[in-house]
TrEMBL record:
<feature type="compositionally biased region" description="Basic and acidic residues">
    <location>
        <begin position="224"/>
        <end position="233"/>
    </location>
</feature>
<dbReference type="InterPro" id="IPR038511">
    <property type="entry name" value="TAP42/TAP46-like_sf"/>
</dbReference>
<dbReference type="InterPro" id="IPR007304">
    <property type="entry name" value="TAP46-like"/>
</dbReference>
<dbReference type="GO" id="GO:0035303">
    <property type="term" value="P:regulation of dephosphorylation"/>
</dbReference>
<protein>
    <recommendedName>
        <fullName>TAP42-like protein</fullName>
    </recommendedName>
</protein>
<dbReference type="GO" id="GO:0051721">
    <property type="term" value="F:protein phosphatase 2A binding"/>
</dbReference>
<feature type="region of interest" description="Disordered">
    <location>
        <begin position="307"/>
        <end position="355"/>
    </location>
</feature>
<dbReference type="GO" id="GO:0009966">
    <property type="term" value="P:regulation of signal transduction"/>
</dbReference>
<dbReference type="GO" id="GO:0005829">
    <property type="term" value="C:cytosol"/>
</dbReference>
<feature type="compositionally biased region" description="Acidic residues">
    <location>
        <begin position="319"/>
        <end position="328"/>
    </location>
</feature>
<feature type="region of interest" description="Disordered">
    <location>
        <begin position="214"/>
        <end position="261"/>
    </location>
</feature>
<feature type="compositionally biased region" description="Basic and acidic residues">
    <location>
        <begin position="329"/>
        <end position="338"/>
    </location>
</feature>
<dbReference type="Pfam" id="PF04177">
    <property type="entry name" value="TAP42"/>
</dbReference>
Amino acid sequence: MEEPQNLRSLFAAARAEKTALETRPDSNTDAYRSDVILTIAKLEECRRLVGLLSLFSSNEPLEEVSTGDIQYLTVEYLLADLLQRSYNSDREGTLRRTLDEYDRYLARLDDYELLEEGNKKLYERYSANPSTFSLIPVNDAAVRREVKVSRFREEKELKQKLEYLSQNQGRLQSDDDDVRKLYLAEIKLYTHQTFQSLDLISQELAMLSTIRKNPEISQQNSQEDQRRRKNEEQSSYSERLDPPISQLLKGGKFGPILSKEGKPMQPFTLLDRRTQLQQGVFGPSHNLPTMTIEEYLDEEHRRGNVLQGGEQSGMKPEVDEDDMDRADEETMKARAWDEYTEANPKGSGNTLNRG
């Protein structure tokens, strides 16, 4: 049966749009998501037309499939890959729909015996338990690293082969065998990437299932967000130059700054956040004293913690010049001290070192 022109042009347009979407930088915009939906719709229409035309059958060998129709074996893969890259509110539902498309793609390849031995075993493991599928069944870091390196090299070789076959577009258009090889090389690359995607989807579904079964996890995250916002609201920092009027009217450490009419009741200074940060850049990590030594001693005197009374050591009391008796007594003491120092010069009592 001759292929209708609308399927060929629709498939070519959908592939071109998908390739463009993979390199667009605005993947988080509504316009991008809208274009993804439109491209998905085109690929779904291609799949409907392929089924309507009965292009493939599980009872026929690959040799009986025309070269032009082999490219349509990848419709389900392209659709699944685009679904996996899309995001909406029902992520789990999207992933399960993606698994269905990948499964259809692999089942069709299995019907035409296009799965090589390694991929055949992976498909059997996946079919046995899709929800727990993993490229590396054993939890061994060394084995996991070896498998990743091996699959990376394999994918690199497949891409190089595909690039080599697609270099000469003119020759491909006139050589049916080369076109067929190109399509089959593309299928091998897509199959390799399919199993990697199945591994990732299995991990993501397990994570989503854990969150769904343990709603307290999301509840804890919500409570933490609420506590953080509450702490920020109660903190002293604010983008305002001064606190809200309601807070000022309640009064603070030094009383209200503004009256009910909004008039200032005491001096105050407006500081912005930048000034506060600059002042604290070179601040010490310990608390500095909040009063001087004189202020501290005055406070201790006020509390009665300083002993008073008695003479201070090393200081002589002043003599009242009008008290003649006290003055004569002090004069006699001075004369006696002078006579003693004259009779006993300094060093006269030290005879140990004299010859």
